[in-house]
Amino acid sequence: MLSLFKVVPLLLLAVGNWVDASPSPKPPARFGKSTPIPNQYIVQYHDHVNSAVRLNHLSEFRLRTAASRSPKFRGVTKGFSIGSFAGFHGELSPADVKQLKGSKLVKSVQQDAIIRVASPVFYNRNLARDSNITSNPRPVWSAGLNNLHTVETPGSWGQGRISHRNLEPKNFVYETDPTIVYIIDSGIRTTHSEFLGSSPSNPSPRAVTGFNFAPPNSDSPSEGSSDGLGHGTHVAGIVGGLTYGIAPQAHLIALKIFNGRGEGTWSGVLSAIEWAVNHTNSYNLRGKTVINMSLGSDDIFQPVNDAVSQAVTQHGITVVVAAGNSDLDTGNTTPGSCPDAISVGSSNEFDERSNFSNWGPATALFAPGEGITSAMNTGDEDTASLTGTSMSAPHVAGLAAYFMGLYGRHTPLQMRQRILGYATPGKLTGDLKGSPNLIAFNGNPEEL
């Protein structure tokens, strides 16, 4: 069994484009719609169907369809069980699909889909570092009253923004205590210096790989569980990097669903959610873990929304998701439309809704998302600035981890109430299109 800390974007919401440190970063890629995979399906049972009935149905289905099995139609390939969400993935013939859709036990049969990073960043790894990939010195922090730590020159402007009610001042104020965040993304460069222990006396790595659910990368067959894209490392750095993180002592577990080409599947997302649920339950971590999902699509894939809801309501995991970069209603996206997730839109350095950010009542709040600096996968000291709601979500996932470390276990509802209750109201300007006027805030006691 994996030990607790040794295990510790479909268009990706925002791999974004490389940006300068200029005030007008390039816009990130849009969500787009997922691409169905021929002959591959996700079958979901009705919530009321118990495990014994499901197993019996599966056995009978396998027996009835055994004669039609072939390399093209391999049948059931993996199962899912997340609270009352249960089902399986299969490579199925048209006859199989018709039979399953006719079963009173089956809630839905939906085609699995490829989810891709839009405009993925394929850079030459042999290029010398430039202004977009840099090695930055660590800021000096000091301990103040009430065990507060103050970073006078934060690694990212987003850290300063969530520490204050107003745009000024810009220092980052926080308290420390570790918790666990699952990063469902492209993996994490776990050896990056951002993910070392929080002090010279505690140098143990805080980022580990939990499992690799990504499809093979035809361009790099040896990629394995490493981060071949950089998006996951960047997101993890915003959550818990020593210099750039909102929760600098968080333990980070990579659940890889995107390969270095920026390709993943909905079934991979479901497997990652299930892994996080099982890990949380195995170590009695209910109320102490967070999932960050900086991924999504501009359509509704209900099995994923249902699985997220079960992780939240039945297993006590706070789930934070990116709202999306298409300037559309978050309520028409997955997983942004899931009412049990905390969907995060993007704001800029001027407290404006980013013009690319999705919006609407399904968006819970906004957090910094333009020109955000964090760790990169190209080297153990490398950083980059990226833009998108993929950068906004980990600000809030980091807040959730920070609040758990500070105040102890939270149910997801308690965490949602704390995050929204602390959020700064009325500061966003521009057309919010029905979105709540809330900017994430870390509860800095000097400004409460």
From TrEMBL:
Domain of life: Eukaryota
Domain Peptidase S8/S53: 179-425
One Gene Ontology term of the molecular function aspect: serine-type endopeptidase activity
Keyword Hydrolase part of the UniProt annotation: yes
Keyword Phosphoprotein: no
A single GO BP: proteolysis
Gene3D superfamilies: Peptidase S8/S53 domain
Signal peptide: 1-21
Catalytic site: 185, 231, 390
Chain positions covered by the region annotation Disordered: 195-229
Domain Inhibitor I9: 40-116
Biased composition (Polar residues): 215-225
Keywords in alphabetical order: Hydrolase, Protease, Serine protease, Signal
Recorded family membership: Belongs to the peptidase S8 family.
Name this protein carries in UniProt: Peptidase S8/S53 domain-containing protein
Originating organism: Podospora didyma
